[in-house]
Amino acid sequence: MKNIDSNTHVSGTSVYLDDVPVLNGTLFGAAYGSPCAHGVIRELILEEALQMPDVVRIFTAADIPGHNEIGGIIKDEPLLADKHVHFCGMPVAFVVARTREAARAAVKKIRIKIDTLPVITDPREAQSKGELIIPPRTFQLGDTDNTWSQCAYVIEGNVDINGQEHLYIETQGAYAVPQENNSLRIYSSTQGPTAVQRAVSGIIGAPMHRFEVIVTRLGGGFGGKEDQANTWAALCSLAAWLLKKPVKYALHRMEDMAMTGKRHPYAADFKIGLNKDLQILAYEAAFFQNAGAAADLSPAVLARTLFHCTNAYYIPNVKATAWSCRTHLPPNTAFRGFGGPQGMFVIEAAIAKAANVLKVDAAIIQKRNLIRTGQEFPYGQTAESEALNCWEKAETLYDIVDQQRRIQQFNADNKLFKKGLAFMPICFGISFTNTLMNNARSLVHIYSDGSVGISTGAVEMGQGVNTKILQVAAQTFSIPPEKIRLNNTSTYTIANTSPSAASATADLNGKATLIACTAILDRLKRLAAEAFQVSTDQITLSNGQVLVNELPSHWDWQELITTAFARRISLSEHGHYATPEIHYDAVKEKGHPFAYHVYGTAILEATVDCLRGTYTIDTVKVVHDFGNSMNTDIDRGQIEGGIVQGIGWMTMEEVVYDKEGILRSNALSTYKVPDIYSVPKTIDIEALQTNRDNLAIFRSKAVGEPPLMYGIGAWFALHNAIRAFHPYADIPFITPMTPEKVLLALYSKTNPEKNQQHAETVSHLGIDQ
Amino acid sequence: MKFILNNEDVGTTLPPGMPLLDFIRYHQHLTGTKTGCNEGDCGACTILAGDLKQGVLVYRAWTSCLTPLGNAHGKHIVTIEGINMLPALNPIQQAMADNCATQCGFCTPGFVMSLAGFCLDRKTPDAENAIAAIDGNICRCTGYKSIERAAGTVAGLLTDRNGEEPAIFATRQQILPEYFAGIKERLKSLIPTLNGELNPPSDTHPRFVGGGTDLYVQQPEAIQEQPIRFLLGQELLKGITREDNRCVLGASVTVNDILESSIMRTWFPALGNYLKLVSSTPVRNMATIAGNFVNASPIGDMTIFFLALDATLELSDGQSVRTLPLRDLYKGYKQLNKTSAEYITRCWFELPGDSTGFNFEKVSKRTHLDIASVNSAISITIAANLISDIRISAGGVGPVPLLLTDTAAFLKGKAPGTATIKQACAIAQLEITPISDTRGTAEYKRLLLEQLIKAHFITLFPTLQVELLL
């Protein structure tokens, strides 16, 4: 089934935040962000801005009637800077004017005097100075200390992983409209309507029930609108509440890029020990997460880095510690993969370095150590593994022997171009790692004409969740999809929602919908059983027809509903689902945090132009553990899109802050995401169809985040291509692998086998000096 | 100001410097056209501009965020609403839906418009050209593979066109709404009512705006309220002609005009490969060569191209006319040897002879639709196996687009051998002063320029032993 939103998308009739018709009298906002990254505000000078034409009012922290606080996990983030500024772009004032242009023009007239303080952009520096968001966390399995002596090889190294700008094509925004009785309707481009509702409630100091947050749809989210949509909604709500006028703010791209956080950059150290058979016996890692100026979702992101620090491998002795380091960058936030990709890159780097030192193909080490069913992850959950199945199916299906032979031949035949190959296995846990968030609700109404309306807490952002939920209802009721409509997401219809995130939205909201539909269906079946004087298990629904003992009766769906309505049977149900089985003890750092894991293997091939340092990622061939896909069209799209986003993160997408903490890659001209010519010529995707029971909706495993991590293989394919040109090339484990890094590595003069440290010489962020 | 917007004649007295995108979305309430980046880099705001050129109706995709409203004057402006045939989808839209080529949907109208532009274009209707038509559209969700499949389907819609007028074919096949068939006549009757060009008030000092592709990135607010003299549509500034051994280009020639010029294609057989590296289809449709010159970016692709050809400019202040070699236009970073009243009218260069080779190289973080880290062009003439004349231009390695004169002087009179080339690279290092910025570190730019100089020679002299150069 195609995405149910295609028709409105292709005709330009889908309604996004900036398309909501604007009411008469609507005012327009624009935020004034701090021009420097760290300091104490001495004076904020608004007079000139206030005198600009059409300016209505400028709000500052002093105007906030409730608490000046929007932090989700930790209360450490003011909406508007009061005395201190902690990052460049931190909102200090909010201008409201009669036109968009006037608001923006007035922002430019605001002056501020700040006594500047030292700026930290490097997480290692923050950690050494004790600037931590939360105490460090350690995951431990076995005993690494006593294992090193048993290892034939011990290899150490370090890694610098850059961030990633979400670059949802629709920028952030909100539109707050006053309603009667001191309440607001807030249109928000958010993945977390409840988070927005909670933030607004706190800022205004009025109960949550006064704030209806509505989301029609998002023009992309990728995690960037999970918690960071709160700011704009809170600013518009503050102004709308105090002025009693509708207030709208859709951010300009450069405001969005400068003021919002991104995927967390990480620095990391690793130590890996192997025996002579290339079995990994021990692994230690230290992660330094660049959290930015406030907690935002960093503690949760940090946890997932630890959960995925051994990727798809079983390692009997593991010790991984992670520090969430406070720096003076915009608070970094959720981004597809949520800390998992960073953890996986480090173990892949450790394996690649071991392979280089031992002069073996990294794929041999990778395959030998894949986790098997019954083996334990460092956090105590035992695996139901598809890792080896995916790997072996990929090897056979894509004839890896032939591919390796072709690449060797190519490299022997060509001087100016070299090819490289890399395997990228993945293992990603599905569920919010904060157990309490794993619940959802769905409100299903059957109207008296037989049409069905469904509201859930899920936010449609292109991932096709509405289509999947519709399929759940259509399949349960056995009626045509045309009879079913998915409503927009509103905190007045569905309360206390978890954000649409963690790849779990279709599972949680789909299950809640299944529960609601099943409850109504049971009532309908009882009614039919009574009418036909049979038992309820003799009644089934099929293709809009009521069957008795599998034979069509004279009742169709319409007749069934009409009768039920006449008999005063409830045609509505509010279904609630909470994931069973999961639990986690954050003190012991052990438990069963995930409903299930998604596995897969990708094989990536890259070609490097050894003269110019440019490159192409040629093919990505994947065997992916779908479980039992309920929508192959949508799932294929998620995988292709995830792979390309992951390749972008690993290759061309370079977030650049200067040493003053000012974003230099602040527009699409300086921050490059993949275009149509940069994507692999071939992306082959094959399902590992399994019917093993799992907690996914209709056994269809989550597909949102896992494929992004196939893109990590692009870095290692390039690494291998460079080494085909220059076997001793100095290739520090720094992402992204831009054409600059490739060219400098191709012509590097040093020998990396001496295990040199890179952190001292190369900055973690690609700092623009 | 008058133009046709979809199927309606519109007139407006709004400031002609306003971005067309804002006019469409916030004044006409046509919200299918999306705001993405405000700098022509994402294509979410793509619209089509139809224009009569010597009686031929030509449609081009433009990014409306960079288009001054004034450049719509006298044209047919088409938004996504203008190609809808609801409740049915048109075949372009159907192809996108069938191939699951839309996820969040925010970029989708831009892709559909670019593909509609492809259906109205006269290029060979194959999949490669269909994909080229969407090279300025960024999608963050799909990874493009499904969009590639849709583009292939759209190309298939046009296989039977056989030289028929694209707008007529598209309406006859019900690819686009019926009214497109009448646009040519409507434009014909609209144009005489316009009283010629859109002119700024006579007592003002107008800004000159060509394609606007850089002005609207750098200073969109500043420009909106200013009196503007629009140069893009001026017939006198158009055209690429051959005069004896010279090629003469009007100042408002766009990059795409160059690409389509039979003169340029004949003398520069690899032109398509070079210009594919320059921005994207909609920006190439708008960006003028003179705009690239006067923008004075140290890394302007067309400037680097024409510097190696030793182009000469003609400037006018409305009263008098003078000529100036392009190499003398730049006095310092963004400083021009030109008064504010002067604008470029045309430029020319000597067409290269049989013994002259030309090559253009550009490396950027993303190969396409990106600004160069370093770019370079070479024009090299060989007589009796020796270099008799040579010019190498280099961008991104100094405050202005450079001609490497010392390097050229060293090479002149020598044979192009590997040792000589290596020595030339060393000399080039002394001529450049790159700085570190988002496009690369100074160290990288130095190495990269050397590599691009080597690439010039490896491309032009295939018998060189490349391993000696690496």
From TrEMBL, chain A:
InterPro entries: Ald_Oxase/Xan_DH_a/b (IPR000674), Ald_Oxase/Xan_DH_a/b_sf (IPR036856), Ald_Oxase/xanthine_DH-like (IPR016208), AldOxase/xan_DH_MoCoBD1 (IPR008274), AldOxase/xan_DH_MoCoBD2 (IPR046867), AldOxase/xan_DH_Mopterin-bd_sf (IPR037165). The keyword Nucleotide-binding does not apply. This is Xanthine dehydrogenase. Residues 11-118 form the Aldehyde oxidase/xanthine dehydrogenase a/b hammerhead domain. It is an enzyme of class 1 (oxidoreductase). Gene3D superfamilies: Aldehyde oxidase/xanthine dehydrogenase, a/b hammerhead (3.90.1170.50), Aldehyde oxidase/xanthine dehydrogenase, molybdopterin binding domain (3.30.365.10). It comes from the Bacteria. It comes from Chitinophaga pinensis (strain ATCC 43595 / DSM 2588 / LMG 13176 / NBRC 15968 / NCIMB 11800 / UQM 2034). The lineage of its organism: Bacteria, Pseudomonadati, Bacteroidota, Chitinophagia, Chitinophagales. Its EC number is 1.17.1.4.
From TrEMBL, chain B:
Pfam families: CO_deh_flav_C (PF03450), FAD_binding_5 (PF00941), Fer2 (PF00111), Fer2_2 (PF01799). It comes from the Bacteria. GO terms for molecular function: 2 iron, 2 sulfur cluster binding; FAD binding; iron ion binding; oxidoreductase activity. Residues 1-83 form the 2Fe-2S ferredoxin-type domain. SMART domains: CO_deh_flav_C. The keyword Iron applies. Residues 161-354 form the FAD-binding PCMH-type domain. InterPro entries: 2Fe-2S-bd, 2Fe-2S-bd_dom_sf, 2Fe-2S_ferredoxin-like_sf, 2Fe-2S_ferredoxin-type, 2Fe2S_fd_BS, Ald_Oxase/xanthine_DH-like, Beta-grasp_dom_sf, CO_DH_flav_C. Keywords: FAD, Flavoprotein, Iron, Metal-binding, Oxidoreductase. Transmembrane segments: none annotated. This is (2Fe-2S)-binding domain protein. The lineage of its organism: Bacteria, Pseudomonadati, Bacteroidota, Chitinophagia, Chitinophagales.
